[in-house]
Amino acid sequence: MTNKKRKLAITELALRDGHQSLLATRMRLDDMLPICEKLDAIGYWSIEAWGGATFDTCLRYLKEGPWIRLRELKKALPNTPLQMLLRGQNLLGYRHYADDVVQKFVDMAAANGVDVFRTFDAMNDLRNVRVALAQVKANGKHAEGTICYTASPVHTLEHYVDLAKGFEDLGCDTLAIKDMAGLLTPNATRELVIALKKNIAIPLHLHSHSTSGVAEMVQWEAVHAGCDIIDTAISPLAGGTSHPATESMVAAFAGSDFDTGLDIEKLQDIAAYFREVRKKYARFESHVTGVDTRVFVNQIPGGMISNLANQLREQGALDKMDEVLDEIPRVRKDFGYPPLVTPTSQIVGTQAVLNVVSGKKYKVITNETKGYLKGMYGRALGEINEDVRKLALGDEEPVDIRPADLIEPELDALTREVGDKAKSIEDVLSYALFPTVALEFFEEREAGNFKPESLDAPAEEGTENTAGIAPGLAPTEFNITIHGEEYHIKIEGSGHKSEDVRPFYVKVGNVLEEVLVETLTEVVPTADGNIDAKKASKGSKRPKAASDSDVTTPMPGRIVALHVEEGAKVVAGEVVLVVEAMKMENPVYAPESGTINAIHVTIGDNVNPDECLIEIG
């Protein structure tokens, strides 16, 4: 331990990774802006507020302009560097983009308010970060290279030191250790930090999730071994799959050689604010709010746990969470032990879900899985299972060059493609990252009719109808009496199985039960605010799949591409449409050769596994 005073710097994660890890990234800008003045006065090294999953969530669920969010936060936090999480050549999407798109995205992020670009590649492939980092430096912004820490038979201390030297050679101003799953132990941290400090001169920044229960000890050891900056989240958004609490770490180092200099009383005001805000997002709460040592086995990062739970709930398969957690390490080994961080965590996690939900390993393989196994995300450090690769690629050969070298400049083509739906270069970039979601966002914006995802907040007093129920809402806790016996009922959550069948997770007394509710009526608000229940036709308007030649989807999702027309000839195994499920694209194949007799879907439709999407005769 050194006796030299060295002030410890803090990055606050409340506005990005705190709510991404615990609340499925659902916090809205309106709940951020009121506390920004107090956040800005604390003296943080930086505040992470953009990137990661926030961009996608703004467009897809919150119906907020992600670029507007960035500008508003920069305006509200003028004295504190604003930090984003950037996935190198992936930017914020789920594929690699051409260099011209990467360069323009960095330019616009810098122009709109990003000061610190934490830049990583999910494969730790330095070829995939050099263009982004060079563009950050060209904009005069802070370039933070990032090691994605993971544990596997092929990830060694020597490997991480080589990576660190590579980032320093690329001109990075700082180096972050991104322990996205909370896998670091105190001993491993001490060894890693000491080794890095011996081999590089730039400051070290540690990001470690609390999932496994040792993050505070990890930060303590890191700082004493020479780490210069640590990531924390204000206490109401700390712990669980999030991070150590800001106030706790400030207190832990107070009066020591590493005193942060931050005022813990001022932090209490911020904590009190977020304690109230968190209540609004109860429906998005992660199921992992305490310590979960399974992470040492399944290695799922903090932000992925809460999103995985939400995705399984949407599929009506929340009860299969343990099976999915067991399947993830097997898929990861097949894939050559990639670090589990977006997008590889999403690719591995989604493939594990498909393996479990479909009942057969690799029966359904996403486009992203195929791209990964082909080498389109970079070079795996470990050996890929050739049987799985053959199953995904057939006779197609994998590639071993920088994936972006295979992509022609695409910014001009994307600009022409989106046309006048884009009102700015920022819109074009949004479209580049999430075409289907962005177009839907642009259409709602044009119509002045944004439909953000509901928070299911209780109705204000006085807004009930004559039945005593708020329009569109139902009570979630009540007593019922059957044959003289009274039962206390509390609805804990709900899922999705099909259009007319929905599972509810209900506590009867203290016993949790799954109840399947089949809808027989539709609820229609009347002009006077009351509710009119009308008999509705059950199920989807599409016919049920009745033949082996009917095209069906393996899991619920949304149609994002349709490759055939009525009357066209198809051969068995030909891709006829693409379904997006859990943010991954799943190609759907013709089960038999024949002629397209009928198509029952259009792009944008939500579909379920029991429906006939296309008839082949």
Quick overview of this protein structure:
With 617 residues, the chain is of the alpha/beta class. A hairpin with a 6-residue loop joins β10 (485-494) and β11 (501-508).
Write the layout of secondary structure elements.
Blueprint: E1 9-12, H1 14-22, H2 36-40, E2 46-51, H3 54-62, H4 66-76, E3 82-86, H5 99-112, E4 116-119, H6 130-138, E5 142-148, H7 157-169, E6 174-179, H8 186-199, E7 204-208, H9 215-225, E8 229-232, H10 246-253, H11 264-279, H12 295-298, H13 302-314, H14 321-334, H15 344-357, H16 367-374, H17 386-393, H18 411-418, H19 425-433, H20 435-447, E9 477-482, E10 485-494, E11 501-508, E12 511-518, E13 521-525, E14 531-535, E15 557-562, E16 569-570, E17 575-581, E18 584-589, E19 594-599, E20 606-607, E21 614-616
Describe the structure.
With 617 residues, the protein is an alpha/beta fold. It contains 20 helices and 21 strands. It has an 8-stranded parallel barrel, surrounded by 6 helices. A 4-stranded antiparallel beta sheet has the order 9-10-11-12, with no helix packed on it. Strands 18-17-15-20 form a 4-stranded antiparallel beta sheet. Helix 18 (411-418) crosses helix 19. Residues 457-473 and 521-539 have low confidence and may be disordered.
